[in-house]
Structures are given as structure tokens and as C-alpha cells.
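Fold sample X.
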Amino acid sequence: MKKLLLPISWIYSVVLFIRHKLYDWNILHSEGCDKPSICVGNLSLGGTGKTPHIEYLIEHLSPTKRLSVLSRGYGRKSKGLVIAKEGMTYKDIGDEPFQYFTKYNNITVAVDENRVEGCKYLINNTDTEVILLDDAYQHRKIIPGLNILLTEFYNIYPKDYLLPAGKLRDIRYAAKRADIIVITKSPKVLSPFIQKDIFNKIKPLPHQKILYSYIDFLSFKPLNSAAASIALQNIKSVLLFCGIANPVPLEEYIKENYNTLSTIYFKDHHDFSESDIDNIITNYNDMIGKNKIIITTEKDAMRLIKSSYLCKFEKTPLFTIPIKVSFHKNDKQVFDNEILSYVRRNT
């Protein structure tokens, strides 16, 4: 099937290449940002870990700098510029921006399809010192001060194909704009031979740094009162439901720690319906034994916590599993120094 789709991918690649060259030659207009701006993005459809990397930057920078996060707000029901405020839900700003807003009370979270106008608003109407551009790598109308490109360890972009034959939404040529290339979701133990092979496949430009990050799964957090009284050390079985681009690392982690795992997967950013929740609870009740729980991701929880469906889990222990990214060995120091040096030079 992939071979049959390659001609379509090739035509798409020509269109994208022309688009990029029009921006490169200034035929199509791009604008910079008057404040330090850091873009975190990828070339693929998703699943590279943009959200935890944005959160890493928030936690790294917010103690000393006033931050804004600007996102498109994928999946929201609103249009145009929206500044997150109390009383809003994921339907107003999207699940990932809602997650930032829920977790961090010392930052501004904004969504706007037009990143240029969104940046201008934040600069002119807030006290922001640094803007984090969430998933803006393909948004050529804005020129970030620093570009961070994420690519998955097990599916780095040089090995992938453009849509519809593969999962790339942009051509490999676009990677040349990156200042830092982060190989995400890598194993915690890395072979130098594998690193050399990845380096040779990516062929970074002289100014580009290749760094490696991995996912740390944190302690489960109860999402309802039924979960709060559970002794997790006694749990044998887990039902995992989620709507994320790549649930495989999470699935593997749970399999390593629990005897039995059942899964219910939805498409990324899935808007849960009442029948979805009923199906999840039915599957949970059908699991054998009493020492069992339900787990979902933080992002999926954002689409539940203010919905009328959360009460359906009243008698069912529901947990979220937070994650964070860590960097390998010296890569953390290199990454942190690159970020801080850029911000210092531009503030």
C-alpha cells in the first residue's frame, strides 16, 4: 500500500517545497517576534512529545521570566484569539493549552490560528518576556528566535515518508531551520553506535545540535474520590484508555509494572461521548478480580475534568499518569544552556 501512495506523497512534497522556497525567497512574507520566542514542533503528525517538552521549558524558565505559551488550540470550538482564564474548558482553548493553564498558574496561555497576531497581542497587552510557540514549526508566517525540532527515536524523520505514504506532514528539507534537534522517547540507556547511526541519517548542519530526551512516567494521581482510597501496591490489573498519537511507550510501561493490561484507544484529541464512557466502565467491570484501576493520560483528563461524564466514574477508581521529559547525561546541560543563552541575549 505504501508504494501505491508514494506518487501522491511525491506530488505533495513538490507543493510543500515550492511553498518553503517562496518563504525562503521572501515572496511570501514572514515576520519575526519583538520578544524572545522559542518554537517547539515536529515534521510529523504527532506523538513526538511536544507537550512535555513545552512543560519542561515552562518549568525551566518561569521561575525567572514571565512566560506566555501560544498555541493554535487544536480541537477547540472557539475561533480567533482567546486568552485562557478561569471557567474555561478544553472546548474554549484545546486540550493541550488547557493542560498548561491547569498546571501552571504563573504563565499566560493563549490560542490563535494566526501566530503573528497572537504574538503581537501578547507583546502589546501582557507583561510577557518570553513566548513559547507550541507546534508552530510549519507556521512559516512567523519567524521564531529559536527553533526546536522534535523527532521520535524509533521513527526519526529521515526514515519516514510524507503523507499519505508515511506520517510526515512536512518535507525533510524543513529540518534545516532547526537550531536544536531533539531525539525524543529514546531509551534511558543509549548505545554510541546507535547515536552515530542517527547522526549520519540526520546529517545535521554545522549550527545544529542533536540531543536526546526520554520519558519519565510519574506516580499515578487520583482523578476521583474512588481512586483516592486505593492502595496502588495491591493493584494487579489496569484498564488504560487514551486518545493520543502514540500510546505505545505508555502501554509498555504499564505492562512492565502490572500483571494484566486492557486497552481502549481513541484517535488523538478525541472528544469523549457518553457511550465512550459507558463502554470504558463496562470493560472495567468485565475485568476479573477486584484489585484493578482505570488509567488515562493528563491530556485525556483535560477533556474529562469539567465534563458531565466524569461523574459516571463515581464508583470506579480513575487515575491519571503524569509524565515529564529528561535529557541524557550532558544533553541536559547543553539544552538548558542553549535556552538560557538565547533568552539572555534577547532580553
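Fold sample Y, listed below.
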Amino acid sequence: MLNRLVEASLRYKFLVLVTFGVVAFLGWRAIVTVPIDAFPDVTPAQVNIYTESPGLAAEDVEQLLTFPIESGMAGLPKVQEIRSVSLFGLSYVAVYFEDDMDIYFARRLVMERLQEVGDRIPEGYGTPEMGPNTSGLGQVFWYTLERADAELKDTITDMDLRTLHDWTVRLMLRTAPGVDDVMSWGGQERQFQVVIEPLNLIKYGLTFREVMEVIEANNRQVGGQYIDIGAEQYLVRGLGLVENEHDIGSMVISVEDGVPVYLRDIATIVQGPALRFGAVTRDGEEVVLGMALSRIGENAANVVDAVKDKVEIVNDALPEGVVLRPVYERTDLVDKAINTAVMALIEGSILVAIVLFLFLGELRSALVVITALPLAMLIAFIFMGEAGLSANLMSLAGLAVGIGMMVDGAVVMVENAFRIMAER
């Protein structure tokens, strides 16, 4: 079999060269398209489920939220394990699937079950939501949104920074290709706060529940079809979304003897920050930290480049006195890791070539063996691309270590050819 292969290669030299060219082209295309990252992503196929219920004790979270979700996820195809954590006001459930499970199909199955689980959770205790489609290595770009000058603290508050990030910066960065979500940390989340005076409730004979129901029922838009006036039609709309404190205070809570009782009569309405449990600072000043998460299977280097392009657009759109400054980007780590592995490959190839020339003592034979190095690497990249593996520090280091093994067979064959020629 081996003799026939050698004879065919010698007989059809042009076909061998064409095959070499095709393999080189496919290998180069694989090098260009293979995902690049610093380390291999070994995160299992999992779907995270979060349920927020502010103020609920951990024991109640376990009974009312975590247990119904866990029991609802049981029985899904290819589920290996279900883990959960119940904290104060937060339920976290992680559903682990088998490694060959398609992550998007798994998320669809979980979404279908969540619709059933929602009926088992008492009303008002939160709605289960799936976490972002990312992995433990998905944090590819960190940045801060801050004031350009610390003296602007009186004009640009921490609440302004957080509002600007949540409703402008975050939405713009989420449109970057490969970004699954953008997380927000720090600052102060803006709220319309209704501070009810208990004595006023007693005065008008009202309860907290009645006031809450009125607020929930009023903040919405409704449609009223249309009416015909002559040859024209007029659409009827009910505008009920609140825009400021005055709109909230104008809600009618009850009517006493034909006199309406407004919300402002029993409460004070103000804009204020939500209760928070931490802060983010940079250079001693409070800032808002953003974290761009790459989607599973995306090329980290390409995602970071796309986010950088969006950052330039965001900085141009920000109001005067506010800047977006990068904190961490994966490309720094990726470039260093890839450069380390590439240099190891190049240095190893050069050393192998020198050793081959010294031991074989003939340039032509050494060149024949050396050509096996790039060809073997190109073939390795082709199979890496087909298998969905990324070019990272470990995979490229494995190629560098395997250089000696790659040429071992070629060296043995060349030496054997020399021996046979000497015997003849």
C-alpha cells in the first residue's frame, strides 16, 4: 500500500502539487476563520434562570421560586444536573445539559417550560428569566461611564450616569455583532418614589393595597378604536403613561362626596435612587461600570473589535462632560497568548530545520522534511475548524510541542531512503 502511494506520487507529480495547493488554501482559510481566544472555553452547555423578588427571605425564595423552577426543569431531554442557589430576594437555577446538546435548542426547551412554571409561582413574587447566552469566558470588554471632570458632579449626578448608560449606551453596544448582553454596575438607578403618609391614609379611609392597585392600573396606554366625523376618521387614544412627578400625583385614588382624592394628597412623589448594595469607583470617583458579554461560539477578537467600533460612535453621541473609558479588553490577553504560541511555533520550526540540516547533511533532503511542518499545521487547522475548536494558547502550544513528532516520520523515511541508496 505504501509502495503504491509513493509510486503514484512520483508518477503524478502535478497532481501532488495541486493537492498540496488545495490543502494550503483550505488551511489558510481555516486559519483566517477559526475562532481566536486566549483559552479554550470549557463551560458546559447550561442555561441559567434568574428570578428576582425584592424583600423575600431566602427560605421563602427556596419554597416559592426555586423549588417550582427546579421541578419544572426536571425531565427535559439530555439534562445532566440541576443546581440552584436561593438568596435574599434572588433565585438562581442552573440547568446543565450534555455536551453535545445544541445550546439554542436547550434554551428553547427551557423557555417552553418557564411558561408552565410561571403558573406555579404566586402572583407578585417575580417572573423567571433566562440569563444571557454567554459563558464564563464571555466578559470580553469592560468600560466605565464617568464624568470628564470631577467638578461636574453637581451638574451630572450618579443617577444621571446610570440612566444614560441603561437607556443609551447599553442599547447601542448591544447592537455590536457577537454581543449577547451588556451588564450594568454602579451608579444610582432612577426611581419615581411614592412616600405615603400613614396619617393621610387614615384620614381618607384608604389602605396601602388600594393605593398600589390604583398606581398599577393608571400607568398605561389604551386604545379606543376610531370615530367618523364627516369624511374623516379620528383615532381615539387614552394617554396614561406617566412622565413626571406631577402626572403621578394627579392619579385619582378615590372620590369622597364628589371630591376626588389625588395621590399627591396622601403622599409625596419624588425622584430618588433605588436601594443599592454596592458601588463602583475609579480614581476615587463613583462611576458606572459596563460589561459586554460575547455570545457562545463567537470569535472573541472579532467581538472586541466590533465593540470598539461602537464605542467610538457612543462617545460621539454622549452629552458634553460624559466620557466612556475602556477598563479591560480581551484582545490584550488574546494577542499576548497567541503571540507566545506563534513564536513557539516559529522558533520550533527553525530549530527543527537546523537540526535536520546538520544531521542529514543535505539541503534538498532537509527541505523535503521541512515542508511537512507547514503542511501538517495547515491540516491541523482544517480539522480544528471542522471540529469547532478555537485557536488558543493550549491548542497552539500543543502544535508547538508536536513539531518534533510531526517530522519524526519524515526523518525516518528520508534516512531509510539514504540507507537503501547506499546499499545499492
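Sample Y note: The two ends are 23 Å apart (CA to CA).
Also: The chain has three domains: 2-39+333-423, 44-134, 191-273.
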